[in-house]
Amino acid sequence: MISNRSKYATAALFLLPAFAVYTVLLIYPVLQSVFMSFYEWNGIAGSKMVFSGLDNYKTMFQMPEFWTSLANVLKFILIGFALQMPLSFFLGYLISRKMKGNRFFKTAFFMPVVLPMTAVALMWTFILFPNGGLFNTLLTEIGLGNLVRNWLGDTTIVTYTTPIINMWVYAGLNMIIFSAGIVGIPEQLYQAAAIDGATGWRKLRYITIPLLKDTFKIYAVTCFTGSLRVFDIIFVMTSGGPNGASDVPATLLYYQGFKYMNFGLANSIGTFILVAGLFLSIVTNRYLNNDK
Amino acid sequence: MRLARFRLGGSLLYLFSAVWALITLYPLVFTAMSSFKTTDEIYSAPFKLPSLYSFSNYARALFDAGMLRAIGNSFGIAIVSTLSVILLGSLASFVLARLGLKFGNAVLLYFLLGIMIPVHTTLVPLMKLVSGVQGQNHYLTMVLIYTAFHLPFAIFLISSHMRGIGKELDESAALDGCGPIRLFASIIFPLTMPAIATAFILTFLYVYNDLIFAVIFISDKSMFTIPLTMLTFVAKSLTEYGPIFASIIVSIIPMIVVFLIFQERVVSGLAAGAVKE
Hints:
Oligomer: heterodimer
Radius of gyration of chain A: 24 Å
Shape of chain B: globular
Distance between the termini of chain A: 46 Å
CATH class of chain B: Mainly Alpha
Low-confidence stretches of chain A: none
Structural class of chain A: mainly alpha
Number of domains of chain B: 1
Order of helices and strands of chain B: HHHHHHHHHHHHHH
Helix content of chain B: over 70%
Low-confidence stretches of chain B: 1-5
CATH superfamily of chain B: MetI-like
Distance between the termini of chain B: 47 Å
Number of helices of chain A: 13
Number of strands of chain A: 2
CATH architecture of chain B: Orthogonal Bundle
Strand content of chain A: under 5%
Strand content of chain B: under 5%
CATH topology of chain B: MetI-like fold
Mean pLDDT of chain B: 90
CATH class of chain A: Mainly Alpha
Largest sheet of chain A: 2 strands, antiparallel
CATH superfamily of chain A: MetI-like
Number of helices of chain B: 14
Number of domains of chain A: 1
Radius of gyration of chain B: 24 Å
Mean pLDDT of chain A: 90
Largest sheet of chain B: none
Structural class of chain B: mainly alpha
């Protein structure tokens, strides 16, 4: 066996660099963010932070922009459950069948996940341009000209456009989560069900979906936390606009902190994102475990 | 009768697959085609193949918009950050997974906590920290920050693989007089290669695609990464569709290549990352 002394010396030598970098640049800032959310700070390096109690939170909860950003998160969650979950499940089901061209489809469906979000978001911004953008042109060409909209410029429509583009990006990733679950279901269960006369739909309803409970739980948690963390797609496609209509908490945090220098407020938004995410994960895990 | 219905169901599923593949790929194909066209042609013939394959849009994107330099910056930062994540991550994983220390599990949990932390929560304090040491516009700052943020997931991947390697190896190595450093370097590290490769590819992908840290910490044009360069170019020349589409293509090609070569690792690794959150 390795002697204890050399074991601890190695442990210290090997562990310290990772521990130090991680603690100083990730853990310390998180704690600092919670701490600073109770202080007022003007952002000038070296200037004093002034204790302000719950003022930042009061400001945050009184801001109409904050509630708009929460409503937008809610739309990401709604579309995440109403459209993206069935779509991802279905795609997962498709690629787990022994279908011709399976490999091609899996590659194609997954492709957007690996692409830089900035490039993808810019691509969609140009495709969705109101005048001469590909999408509206396409609608007109196929005789659906009355559906032409200003997809990113209308304050209501934009809050649905962005979650749908987000779905275009992430459906492939969630597809893998579902297909992993589907592949894990033992074949014998289906065979037994087939002997009992169950057909495709009933197999799906009574075997596949109930057995994928854990997968749905994982999806629910990633949908909640992912929706709370949305940033890139909004930052690039709309900058939170028009007029703040598409802001989400993370873009609000960025603009409040780095544009308007309201660092205290930015930290309270950051703390909110952190706490809300943890809260939703814990509640989802507990709730979906209890009714087993 | 039943056979007919089965076939119908099968071909419906096939049709749906084809439709979603079209929805996924067509925007990329459209962007690629448009990257060769003039602005007039993009407007007048959006669905047609380019009338001639001119690379002038690419020249404009690479040289005038600064994409060439940005590619260098992005690749440089991503590769150095990834190497640093792999080095620190595999050393830490070795200690946590192989040495059987009392506090090993607690420290591992401490690292895994980082996977659940939303990046944006840390931004203001990080900015305070970095500006306190005048660290903006430094490659080292970027590398250290990316290292900190991608270590948790790398440690998760690498340490779980290291745990699976038989303990007898360590004992026989010790009997042969092999110290912990050699044990790590010549036995455990090579045996962990599959997980290390996955961690490498994923970290590279995450850092290459990152937007927010570049936005916060880089303002010096000569250091601009690909996302920053594209955003400034679009803000300045909103109507230059051709060059903008060319820059989009230039920025996604490396990721498509990485993805096609390492598909299985990328897919399973990214899925593991999503599930872990």
